[in-house]
């Protein structure tokens, strides 16, 4: 019985080592591939322009609010308490509008980023899958990932760039 247990354990070790060796893994420098893609460069520029436009709108509204604050402070002593109270309410409303603009700009920027990068991510994923299947690779790990578990596999960055027609 003891010999059978030892034999079984030896067979299991051989089988498990064979299974580990059968799995191929590779690393991919995702950042390098993305930075080489012209679509990503264009998306980055489009997103920056969109964000800059939103920031300009918010700044313009904020500057107008600052002018009103200054004007109201200068004229406060010449106005009645009711007028000053109405002005304070107007300034409060303006401040709320600016906060709402900032929130909306953040949400719009995130939506724009998602819309711009989704097709790029899909294209990259398709290229990774095609290269991995062609090279019978079971696992592809991001070379730059902080959770990288295995880094001795072949680096397929050049093959993915070639698949995407990049240099």
TrEMBL record:
SUPFAM superfamilies: OmpH-like. GO terms for biological process: protein stabilization. Keywords: Coiled coil, Signal. Residues 69-111 form a coiled coil. Residues 1-22 form the signal peptide. GO terms for cellular component: cytosol. Transmembrane segments: none annotated. Pfam families: OmpH. InterPro entries: Chaperone_Skp, Skp_dom_sf. One of its GO terms (molecular function) is unfolded protein binding. PANTHER family: CHAPERONE PROTEIN SKP. Belongs to the Skp family. This is Molecular chaperone Skp.
């Amino acid at each position: 019985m003891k010999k059978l247990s030892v034999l079984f354990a030896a067979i299991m070790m051989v089988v498990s080592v064979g299974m580990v060796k059968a799995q191929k893994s590779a690393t991919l420098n995702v950042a390098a591939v993305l930075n080489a893609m012209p679509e990503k460069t264009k998306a980055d520029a489009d997103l920056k322009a969109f964000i800059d436009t939103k920031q300009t709108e918010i700044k313009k509204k904020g500057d107008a609010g600052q002018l009103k604050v200054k004007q109201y402070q200068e004229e406060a002593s010449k106005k009645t308490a009711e007028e000053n109270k109405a002005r304070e309410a107007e300034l409060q409303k303006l401040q709320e509008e600016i906060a709402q603009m900032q929130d909306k700009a953040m949400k719009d920027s995130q939506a724009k980023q998602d819309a711009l990068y989704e097709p790029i991510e899909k294209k990259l994923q398709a290229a990774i899958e095609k290269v991995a299947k062609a090279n019978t690779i079971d696992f592809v790990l991001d070379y730059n990932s902080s959770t990288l578990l295995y880094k001795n596999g072949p680096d397929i960055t050049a093959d993915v760039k070639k698949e995407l027609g990049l240099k």
